[in-house]
Structure formats: structure tokens, C-alpha cells
Amino acid sequence: MKSLKDILAVLIGIAAALGAIFYFYRFVTDPNPAGGHTSGWIALGLAAIAFVCGLIYFLGHVNKEEEIHITQ
Fold first, then answer.
1. Which of 16, 54, 56, 71 counts the highest number of beta carbons within 10 A?
2. For the chain, what are the domain ranges?
3. Quick one: which of 41, 48, 50 has its CA closest to 15?
4. In this structure, how many other beta carbons lie within 10 angstroms of the beta carbon of residue 20?
5. How far apart are CA 7 and CA 18, in angstroms?
């Protein structure tokens, strides 16, 4: 990881993924059949944030390797 953008994307992505897991667990294990919708929406939003952070990190490393030319 070379830049601050990569470090922030990884940290925010991991925190959002852990939060999404926690809120999804709360959504699934809610004893009230009519409740828990807020936890479900929070889990979905945090999962989307984790996905976007993953895209930022991985798409920032596309074509960053040194090219090997055919004449070498």
C-alpha cells in the first residue's frame, strides 16, 4: 500500500464490512417478526460502502506492474 487513499479505503472497507456483518446478524436474529428492518437497511448500506471501498482499492492497482516488452 503506497498511498493514503489505499490505506483509507482498506480501513474504511474493513470497518464497514464488520459493521455490515454485525447489523445483518442483528437483523436475522431479531425475535420480533415485524421489527429489525432498520438493522437490515443499515447492514445493506454498510455492505455497499465496503464494496465501493474494495473497488477503489483494487481498481487503483490496475496496470501498475512493469511491462515486459516482447523484444526483451
1. 16
2. 4-59
3. 50
4. 20
5. 17
